[in-house]
Design a protein that fits this description.
Helix content is 70%, strand content 0%. With 502 residues, the protein is mostly helical. It has a domain of 63 residues. The longest helix is centred in the last third of the chain and has 35 residues.
Length: 502
């Protein structure tokens, strides 16, 4: 594996995606769709040859071992790799231009799931498979990059813990981190688990009645939290509520990083019951559905004077699934969500879903948003400040680590929260200048920054569609997706000369 350490991340990813193009090729051969098979075969082979030539060119060069170089390499991969992924897509769909194809692939690669083809019957199955493969592999890349690059750099949510250690210790850790070795080691530990779980979930969905292709695409979309579907979401699948339960169970992997790896003390799964992100998720999926159910229940009593048991439990489950889906930034809509609204006669609480999307999932997972750990740090800091208002001379317990989490960790979380709001303001302003009304601009901006593409169809008024917005608006949304997936702190680190020196 020594030769891998001498290659830029972009070249390695280029080779991987060139090989992945053979998957839709074999699928097209099985369906005897020879145009699609030839297209993916030719492009995959050409890009593979191009990758080999680039690998030979870089083999004699000594690459920088700085963490910031790895971050920059990853950022370039997110910006430029979708260009190559969009070429076969654009060739097979002549009705769209190349920029739209790039938009589609960038959306999949960043696990946003914003599609120009809301009516999914327009696209053939092989292109849906390609979209889901790009999204699934993009989520896997973020899992590996979060642990291999962002953790030693103290970014992507890890800054909440990194700020609690001494600055000199953090600088030493950054300098000594072997990024390429970490990426390779975490790849070997995460990829088998990621693939195995996807296969298991696909089999379970097939047993519940889904077609094999639908089951595979929904399984890959669940683990990547992209929300990509070839049947207009779960409502077009055949697995019903049982399939939703399976999806909800596997969405826990987007909440805690300890589902994929052991912690530094080797405890791993034993940490789950005390994991703050998991506990915060449980509070959300218990409290919010109960509040929604109580509101709908009181309204249903006023309208009909009686309750149907099936509709009652269907409405409750619809709320639970929607909270879990949008908290993990997946964006799947429950089949019982319409029942929940028609049961009470109330509209969609889009503001709640947008708030859940902004909160996001766990750090070092495929979920987007602010991340639950940052929310918890701000909560602990707020509780401590309110305590000091009543008892100014009180001393908080739980040790130095917990005190640092409430102070320096909360400070880092607050900085990210402010950067998120500033980014949101600029994105909303830019979208508004393109002629989109403010409410729709806000929904679009949150969809991009939280990487929840399907949010606009649930939280909006029904008039929003990615295919109808202007090219300028799509360009701004692409920037929002990159900021949401890569996070503003990492982008600022690239622009900071002191970080390059360290």
């Amino acid at each position: 594996m020594k030769w891998l350490r001498n290659q830029p991340l972009f070249v390695i990813l280029m080779g991987i995606y060139s090989l992945l193009m053979y998957v839709p090729m074999f699928f097209s051969v099985r369906l005897e769709q020879w145009l699609f098979a030839r297209t993916f075969f030719y492009h995959g082979t050409f890009f593979l040859i191009l990758t080999i030539l680039m690998a030979i060119a870089f083999s004699s060069q000594k690459l920088s071992q700085k963490i910031v170089s790895g971050i920059f390499d990853l950022f370039c991969s997110f910006v430029f790799l979708p260009i190559f992924l969009a070429i076969p897509f654009n060739h097979l769909i002549p009705s769209i231009n190349f920029f739209d194809a790039y938009f589609e692939m960038l959306s999949c690669f960043t696990t946003t799931g914003a599609s120009l083809f809301y009516v999914n019957d327009i696209l053939p199955d092989v292109l849906h498979l390609w979209r889901s493969i790009v999204g699934w592999s993009g989520g896997l890349l973020m899992l590996i990059a979060a642990l291999g690059i962002f953790q030693p750099a103290g970014l992507a949510g890890f800054e909440v813990y990194a700020r609690t250690v001494d600055t000199a210790v953090l600088e030493t850790r950054i300098k000594r981190a072997d990024i390429r070795s970490r990426m390779i080691n975490y790849s070997f530990s995460i990829i088998p688990v990621y693939i195995s779980l996807t296969v298991v979930m696909s089999i379970l969905l097939i047993f519940c009645g889904d077609r094999p292709l639908v089951a595979v695409i929904h399984a890959m979309s669940t683990f990547s939290t992209s929300g990509i579907s070839n049947v207009n979401g779960i409502k077009g699948a055949s697995s019903g509520i049982i399939g939703e339960v399976i999806i909800a169970l596997f969405l826990i992997f987007a909440i805690s990083r300890f589902m994929y790896q052991q912690d530094i003390e080797g405890r791993g799964f034993r940490r789950l019951k005390r994991d703050k992100e998991v506990n915060l998720m449980l509070i959300c999926i218990i409290l919010i559905p109960i509040l929604l159910f109580a509101k709908n229940w009181s309204e249903a009593i006023k309208l009909s004077g009686s309750l149907d048991i099936f509709s009652t439990f269907a409405a409750l489950w619809g709320s639970v699934f929607m909270v879990m889906s949008f908290l993990t930034t997946t964006g799947f809509e429950s089949t019982q969500w319409a029942t929940s609204q028609s049961w009470s006669g109330l509209g969609t609480p889009g503001l709640i879903l947008m708030g859940l999307s902004v909160m996001g999932g766990g750090i070092a997972t495929t979920a987007g948003g602010m991340k639950l750990l940052r929310v918890y740090a701000l909560y602990k800091h707020g509780i401590r400040e309110m305590t000091r208002l009543s008892f100014p001379n009180s001393v908080a317990g739980s040790g130095n680590k917990a005190r640092g989490f409430r102070r320096e960790g909360a400070y880092a979380a607050w900085i990210f929260f402010m950067l998120f709001l500033v980014s949101l303001a600029f994105i909303v302003l830019g979208l508004s200048l393109t002629g989109i009304k403010f409410e729709d601009s806000l929904v679009l901006a949150i969809s991009g920054l939280s990487t929840v593409g399907p949010l606009i169809y649930v939280a909006g008024d029904g008039s929003l569609d990615y295919a109808t917005i202007s090219r300028t608006a799509k360009s701004i949304f692409c920037i929002a997706m990159l900021l949401g997936r890569f996070e503003a702190l990492a982008v600022i680190a690239l622009l900071n000369p002191n970080f390059w020196l360290k």
